[in-house]
Amino acid sequence: MRTIRGDHPTLSLPPFTPAVTWLIVINTAFYFLMLLLGMSAPGAGSALSHVLALVPVLVVTHGWVWQIVTYSVLHGSFIHWFFNMLGLWMFGPQIESIRGPRYFLELFLAGVVGGALFSVGLSYSGVLGNPYAPTIGASAGIYAVLVAFGMFFAETEIMMIPLPVLIKAKYVIAILIVVELAMSLQENDGVAHIAHLGGILFGFLFVKFVPRRGFGFAVSENAFAFRNFYHRLKRRQASKKFQVYMRKHGQNPKDDFDDSEFRPPDDKTDGRGGWVN
Length: 277
Known about the structure:
Layout: E1 2-5, E2 8-11, H1 18-40, H2 42-52, H3 56-61, H4 67-70, H5 78-99, H6 101-123, H7 139-152, E3 157-159, E4 166-168, H8 169-184, H9 193-209, H10 215-248, E5 257-258, E6 261-262
Antiparallel strand pairs: 1-2, 1-3, 3-4, 5-6
């Protein structure tokens, strides 16, 4: 890939950022593990692939829900593995550099899970897919990364070597979406186009609606907000019960409370007390 900065095209080789590096290492380790098992213990390799690959009928009827993630670490060939890792390396570091490792990992995982959900859901629709057909590969996560790159760096011009044509990133992503949509409606060619579409959709939704610090941060913030709301509600209820109690005993609650501040019992002045609730 070549990027255009100003009027001068420059060869751009991205760095190996932490999250991208870990994803490449994990996928590469599983690729070579499956190769070794295939040569030394084919039965064990087939059994492991059966457990990790995404098979919709196993997810739905047997509850093998881990497959919606684990299928992404398996690759069927060197070309399959190589181009997925190349795409991850070429487009991932730019996103990680502006959003951080946590955001990038969540984005990639959103694409993987989205691709799996699409594959499982549509395979039972009777129109697209087969619930008994296994799906493997990190392509859904890669497509989520590609969509995010097109959204964050829409005006960046890239040259996909060896084609001597400069295309803005947003147009490259649009072309990919159209191609995947068309291919998913064709006869089965051994490529999980449905999973790719799921990765595209979930990648778009993630970038559009998840805050810049990631989904986990948003969840924790909402959890703290709910906890604080709960405690404020309990304090209000306790305050109301205390006021009812004070009135039953012929005392004015305002003698001890003034605009949510607690007045010490021995403070009978008109000023506010030193204790606060």
